[in-house]
TrEMBL record:
<dbReference type="InterPro" id="IPR051786">
    <property type="entry name" value="ASN_synthetase/amidase"/>
</dbReference>
<dbReference type="InterPro" id="IPR014729">
    <property type="entry name" value="Rossmann-like_a/b/a_fold"/>
</dbReference>
<comment type="pathway">
    <text>Amino-acid biosynthesis; L-asparagine biosynthesis; L-asparagine from L-aspartate (L-Gln route): step 1/1.</text>
</comment>
<dbReference type="GO" id="GO:0005829">
    <property type="term" value="C:cytosol"/>
</dbReference>
<keyword id="KW-0061">Asparagine biosynthesis</keyword>
<dbReference type="InterPro" id="IPR001962">
    <property type="entry name" value="Asn_synthase"/>
</dbReference>
<dbReference type="Pfam" id="PF13537">
    <property type="entry name" value="GATase_7"/>
</dbReference>
<dbReference type="Pfam" id="PF00733">
    <property type="entry name" value="Asn_synthase"/>
</dbReference>
<dbReference type="GO" id="GO:0005524">
    <property type="term" value="F:ATP binding"/>
</dbReference>
<keyword id="KW-0547">Nucleotide-binding</keyword>
<feature type="binding site">
    <location>
        <position position="100"/>
    </location>
    <ligand>
        <name>L-glutamine</name>
    </ligand>
</feature>
<keyword id="KW-0315">Glutamine amidotransferase</keyword>
<keyword id="KW-0028">Amino-acid biosynthesis</keyword>
<protein>
    <recommendedName>
        <fullName>asparagine synthase (glutamine-hydrolyzing)</fullName>
        <ecNumber>6.3.5.4</ecNumber>
    </recommendedName>
</protein>
<dbReference type="InterPro" id="IPR033738">
    <property type="entry name" value="AsnB_N"/>
</dbReference>
<dbReference type="InterPro" id="IPR006426">
    <property type="entry name" value="Asn_synth_AEB"/>
</dbReference>
<comment type="similarity">
    <text>Belongs to the asparagine synthetase family.</text>
</comment>
Length: 596
């Protein structure tokens, strides 16, 4: 895990020392162990790198890294879990070390951009190709690792974080309506937007070429939605479903242990992290593992307290266990820094921030998270509620105009007794994507002018509605069963734009790499035909895959999600009564940093 940034230009301009220094400083937490630069001999390109040492701790793993012939130079953020296997494909390459970075470089030399079809992991990287006088940039299929781009009059920039690009004077920082509206709609900024017109996210599963005198050429090389839509029966279909599931999950957890430093496991009482710990104890000696659990003093001795169950799970698998309890005072003392390191506004990530802090204080640079299990195995209420809503509303065959009238007449009344979202059921319940907004939305579209400048809100909604890429992505899943459509939406919306992005910035705030064995493109492809079948595997099916079953009280425990009492923490510091859910928190962080 690292921080990367770079610039390419084929004219006279070259970034000065002040800009370079500011960018490197902005990535310090991402890579506290080393920093280096590479400058093209003719100053056509600049590559900047901050290193967090996890694979090949020697100087042989340092970046930027250049091939012995000087033709290729790479900077890389992430982990390639199958790099040891792939090294054997680069016969004759003069490896200097054992890093996965060097493996990418060697395979790119042999296969070019086709290398992307072989990489298993989370990544964002850039390669300067001297022979082609061009830059090649790529981001992993799920979008686990972030990468942002900016085209200015003085060249093309990219970086691991938005805040690094804020250090570039030429970047257009005027408000991007879709980013601002999207944050209040979803609780996070939807890709490819940011809050700034001049900065975009490179979409997940995309790469780009930038050649002399041309505009960037984008190409999609992988898609979560397409992997589900195009999944075909395979030879593995003859293997019993449970065996397929167990083999795939054990394979993913095992490869995610590729590391030259110790690895911890974030453990709640939920099935996802418990299953990961159980499988981890199958593939690694229990004494080599440690589980870390976060609790909150406000939840102690209530159903929301998971610490006792987590301790039981760790003991069950013979794994060392540590618990840290967070208080309101802990939150207050960290709130300023938490918002400061938040690269883009988000209502989530507090739990990841504190458990990553705990991991670093315990001496870990790498930890496993259970994120991703709900998207694969139908753990959210959306898998039940969205098909129910769509099926019900379609029966009435009502126009959207009627739904809009119904909402206008019932919104105030329903808002007094329950969520105002229910007023939109007839307006937003006819399609899966609209019902998904109704289920996941923080503020609904008709509420945005109340929390944003009305012109900004309307322009943002229009831009989001007209996003051709999103329309194409939705069309890819139209033929899927409703369950698989929800899985695709959860994976490409909530998981990508919020959970994965939050794991990145929150982990990096403490120089901790958070790995996600249940968010793995190879795992998805192995299970895609099952997920889109009439009988997709459930969370309970996932949870029985460890060789030693989870304790019965964990298997039978009602799903509660991992809650953080931020609404209660804010209650005494806000002038008005906190709104339902995390709406007050959304307003608070937005005003604190992005318009404060």
């Amino acid at each position: 895990m690292c921080g990367i940034a770079g610039w390419v230009n084929f004219g006279e301009y070259f970034p000065n020392e002040k800009v370079q220094r500011s960018i490197l400083d902005s990535m310090k937490e991402r890579g506290p162990d080393d920093e280096r630069r590479w400058v093209h001999p003719e100053k056509k390109a600049l590559l900047l790198h901050r290193r967090l040492t996890i694979r090949d701790l020697s100087a042989n793993g340092a970046q930027p890294m250049t091939t012995s012939d000087g033709k290729l130079t790479i900077i890389f953020n992430g982990e390639i879990y199958n790099s040891d296997e792939l090294r054997s494909w680069a016969l004759g390459y003069p490896f200097k070390g054992t890093s996965d970075t060097e493996c990418i470089l060697a395979l790119y030399q042999k296969f070019g951009p086709q290398v992307l079809t072989y990489l298993r992991g989370m990544y964002a990287f850039a390669i300067w190709d001297e022979e082609k006088s061009s830059l090649f940039v790529a981001r992993d299929p799920y979008g686990i690792k972030p990468l942002y781009i900016a085209q200015t009059r003085n060249g093309f920039w990219f970086a691991s974080q938005v805040k690094s690009l804020l250090e570039v004077p030429e970047v257009d920082l005027s408000p991007e309506p879709a980013g601002h509206a999207g944050f209040f709609l979803w609780g996070s900024v939807p890709e490819p937007y940011t809050l700034y017109k001049g900065i975009r996210s490179l979409r997940a599963g995309h790469c780009l070429w930038l050649k002399d005198g041309t505009e960037p050429q984008f190409h999609q090389f992988a898609s979560v939605s397409k992997s589900l839509a195009e999944a075909l029966p395979s030879a593995e279909d003859d293997v019993p479903i449970f065996a397929r599931l167990r083999n795939a999950l054990h394979d993913s957890v095992k490869v995610h242990f590729a590391s030259d430093v110790p690895v911890a496991v974030f453990l709640s009482a939920g099935l996802d992290s418990s299953t990961i710990l159980g499988i981890a104890s199958d593939v690694m000696p229990s004494e080599a593992l440690k589980a870390l659990t976060l609790g909150f003093d406000m939840y102690q001795n209530t159903p929301g307290d998971e610490t006792a169950e987590a301790a039981l799970i760790a003991e069950h698998y013979g794994v060392a266990h540590q618990t840290t309890i967070i208080s309101k005072e802990d939150f207050s003392s960290e709130a300023t820094r938490l918002i400061q390191v938040m690269d883009q506004p988000t209502i989530d990530g507090i739990n990841s921030y504190f458990v990553a802090k705990m991991a670093r204080e315990a001496g870990f640079k790498v930890a496993f998270s259970g994120v991703g299990g709900d998207e694969l195995f139908g753990g959210y209420g959306s898998f039940r509620q969205i098909p129910q809503a769509v099926t019900l509303v379609r029966r009435f065959n009502l126009s959207r105009r009627f739904g809009r009238l119904f909402r206008r007449y019932t919104e105030r009344l329903l808002g007094q007794i329950t969520s105002p979202k229910y007023a939109g059921i007839l307006e937003y319940g006819n399609t899966v994507e609209d019902a998904y907004l109704l289920r996941r939305g923080l503020f609904m579209p008709w509420e945005l002018p109340q929390v944003l400048d009305s012109d900004l809100a309307l322009a943002g909604l229009e831009a989001l509605d007209n996003d051709a890429f999103v329309a194409k992505e939705l069309s890819d899943i139209k033929t899927l069963p409703l369950y698989a459509q929800v899985s695709a939406l959860e994976s490409t919306r909530y998981l990508r734009n919020q959970l994965l992005r939050d794991a990145d910035w929150a982990g990096m705030a403490h120089s901790v790499e958070i790995r996600t064995p249940l968010v793995d493109y190879s795992l998805l492809k192995q299970l895609a035909s099952l997920i889109r079948s009439n009988h997709p595997p459930s969370k309970l099916a996932m949870a029985i895959t460890p060789k030693r079953a989870l304790p019965p009280q964990i298997m039978n425990r009602k799903k509660s999600g991992f809650a953080v009492p931020v609404r209660d923490w804010l209650a005494s510091s806000l002038p008005e009564k906190p709104e339902r859910g995390l709406r007050s928190w959304a307003k608070f962080i937005y005003k604190s940093k992005w318009i404060g």
